[in-house]
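Tokens in:
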């Protein structure tokens, strides 16, 4: 039996998991926080959002295609990975799939010898970015779509993507399910599709409205709920669920750890169009989205569509860098790091209050078993002007906190912010306040609270 070293040394038990808890790949996904989404394909050349599947593949010709430029741009923007539309609803495959006659092989790009997935997976490796794929089950081109045979075709299609391009961190399944060339809709064999992913990429998280790895946040605006549980009751939902609004908050009593991914485009559309070059979201809007997604226990999947030359346009790249700078200015330096911390209850050695400000994600303060409330106070030698805090629970043991308040002390205590859930990360902003002590008061929790980070910021 595995006995943690800390327990052998101190005799003090860590809290028991408060189920459900995330898998290792889900924990890595939470901590990765921010991923680029790339919609790219025939629509990039036609200006459509939903292609028809009848487009001439010859017109796919991104003459200056450069996956390294994409990866470099996204790396510099502070993103941790890229998810590419390997196949969108029009059925066009960005790799020379054997399951289709509507692919890069039939295009005029690189005389039919190009492979976007090959180039992009290599570029991701070079820039140490995670690589993910959007593979649409809806296919407006495939002649078998609408028949049981298509499920087999799609399983083989997935297998190609999952076995030829190295590690895949996320597989993105869209919920859209429309008619194919025969006018029929497909009844998707989800158990089959999931089994293919589990077999060939067991560490990939699977996205759909309903998971099973990560869920849609229920809107395409990039915002999680102010209350946002990583859990849902998985059995209530299917891809394409009409109950999608519930996904914005998740459920305190959900039996399944299926956290929220917030997808949103930097432009009005998902695909690049020159007409939208002037409609790129402002830095202020992107900052608001950041606080509303990553700052509310979500993962931000920001779509930055490559243009018809096969490059990330200068205007988008520029905005991404401004956005990065704005984040750094809003939260420049954690002023709580290494400060004196105390708590109103004590579990004992290994779980002290000081763990909240040691800068380590895997150490945490924990209250004793049975406690549903706890206070952790940070003390500063000199008065500090603070206008934001960032909190984190130790999510490997489950998401617990239901309600909390933040107080500042400068002669007297004053509540400056309040919230409900925390999860992987919760950022709260408030008007600048000078303080010598900063306190989080957890008012209610599903089980004894665990806090791994309590950070304090003064924006520049
Ligand atoms: C939707 C799709 O129908 C859109 O075209 C886009 O890919 C978006 C991210 O998901 O459901």
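Residues out:
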């Amino acid at each position: 039996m595995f006995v943690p070293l800390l327990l052998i040394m101190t005799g003090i038990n860590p809290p028991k998991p408060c189920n459900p808890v995330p898998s290792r790949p889900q924990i890595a996904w939470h901590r990765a926080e921010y991923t680029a989404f790339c919609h790219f394909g025939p629509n990039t050349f036609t200006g459509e959002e939903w292609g028809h599947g009848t487009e001439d593949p010859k017109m796919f010709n991104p003459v200056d295609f450069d996956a390294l430029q994409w990866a470099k741009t996204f790396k510099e923007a502070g993103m941790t990975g890229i998810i590419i539309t390997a196949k969108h609803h029009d059925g066009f495959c960005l790799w020379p799939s054997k399951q289709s006659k509507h692919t890069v092989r039939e295009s005029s790009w690189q005389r039919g010898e190009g492979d976007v997935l090959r180039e992009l997976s290599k570029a991701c490796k070079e820039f140490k970015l995670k690589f993910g794929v959007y593979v649409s089950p809806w296919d407006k081109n495939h002649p078998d779509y609408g028949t049981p045979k298509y499920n087999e075709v799609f399983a083989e299609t997935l297998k190609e993507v999952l076995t030829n391009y190295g590690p895949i961190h996320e597989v993105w399944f869209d919920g859209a399910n429309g008619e194919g060339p025969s006018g029929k809709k497909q009844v998707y064999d989800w158990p089959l599709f999931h089994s293919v992913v589990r077999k060939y990429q067991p560490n990939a998280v699977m996205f759909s409205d309903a998971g099973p790895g990560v869920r849609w946040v229920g809107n395409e605006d990039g915002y999680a709920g102010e209350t946002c549980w990583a859990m849902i009751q998985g059995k209530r939902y299917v891809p394409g669920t009409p109950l999608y609004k519930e996904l914005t908050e998740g459920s305190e009593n959900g039996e399944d750890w299926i956290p929220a991914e917030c997808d949103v485009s930097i432009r009005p559309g998902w695909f690049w169009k020159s007409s939208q070059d002037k409609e790129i979201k402002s830095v202020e809007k992107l900052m608001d989205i950041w606080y509303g997604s990553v700052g509310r226990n979500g993962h931000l999947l920001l779509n930055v569509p490559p243009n018809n030359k096969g490059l990330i346009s200068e205007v988008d790249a520029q905005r991404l860098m401004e956005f990065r700078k704005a984040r750094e200015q809003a939260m420049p330096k954690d002023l709580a790091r290494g400060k004196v911390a105390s708590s109103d209850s004590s579990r004992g050695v290994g779980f002290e209050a000081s763990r909240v400000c040691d800068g380590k994600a895997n150490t945490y303060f924990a209250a004793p078993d049975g406690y549903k409330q706890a206070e952790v106070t940070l003390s500063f030698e000199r008065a500090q002007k603070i206008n934001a805090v960032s909190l984190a629970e130790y999510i490997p043991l489950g998401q617990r906190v239901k309600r909390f308040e933040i107080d500042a002390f400068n002669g007297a205590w004053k509540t400056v912010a309040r919230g409900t859930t925390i999860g992987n990360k919760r950022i709260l902003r408030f008007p600048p306040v000078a303080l010598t002590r900063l306190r989080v008061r957890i008012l209610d929790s599903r089980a004894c609270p665990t806090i791994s980070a309590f950070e304090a910021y003064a924006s520049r």
